[in-house]
Target: Quinone oxidoreductase
Amino acid sequence: MRAIRFSQTGGPEVLELVEVETPTPGPGQVLIRHQAVGINFIDTYHRTGLYPLKLPSGLGSEAAGVVEAVGDGVTRFQVGDLAAYAGGTLGAYADYAVVPAERAVKLPPGVDAQTAAAALLKGMTAEFLLRRCYPVRDGQTILVHAAAGGVGQILVQWAKALGCDVIATVGTLEKAERAREHGADHIILYRDQDVAAEVRRITGGQGVPVAYDSVGKATFEGTLASLARRGTFVSFGNASGPAPPVEPPRLMRGGSLFFTRPTLFDYIATTEELDASAGALFEMILSGQVKIEVGQTFPLAEARRAHEALESRHTIGASLLIP
Model:
């Protein structure tokens, strides 16, 4: 089978398409023939070495497709089922992958492989951020950075379904229009406007009870200054570079603030948590309250070009590799 591998960290040029042996599922595992592979910003962190890996390595943690074979003891899936997974051993940038059956989910009728590969990691991230990391409430005004991105679009739609008023930041006028289409109530162009000043203006000087920030370095100070007293800063990405360290007195001076740096995998640590999170996401998709936009697709062989597009900030919605 074909797979993307890299033996040194660096730019997109380190990604190579190679031929490797198609794996065979062992006990408790399933072999999935990929129909679509999700591209996520965390993939660039692995490629650059921001999140260190043992090299050489595969890349990618999310895909969906058809179960081609099941190992001994597997009752969760049958051959022919549509399945998806997010997380675990890297290597989704490939034609096939072997996955522990307990870490994959079956796709319900009405959710196809491309939708699942575009939605599972990003959508479960939105689910835990809004419902468990900081459970938002009807009537709250919240701040969502990078609102036109893959996670951002889902966050905005899901937050609106929960009754929130959403302040969305984006980098361009084109992305502002996308955020409005997905329900954002207020738009801030974070490269051109003072985010904190705009948030204070919109909220009558109060600030927001929670801010979801996947941008990192570029938005860090503005996010801190946008929070209401006892507000929560949820930092879950580094698209512009790592956020700086936070000294505890800074949180005190900001109004007894809370700061957290969560990761999805601590919120889907068990099969029960995984099924509940994915089930909630699929329910939102099937209800029409969350629409998944696949903004761009690339052939598997063009993973380098996909990463160049992602890091240029010119992508909208989700990006997929198609084996």
Q: What stands out?
A: Residues 37 and 150 are 14 Å apart (CA to CA).
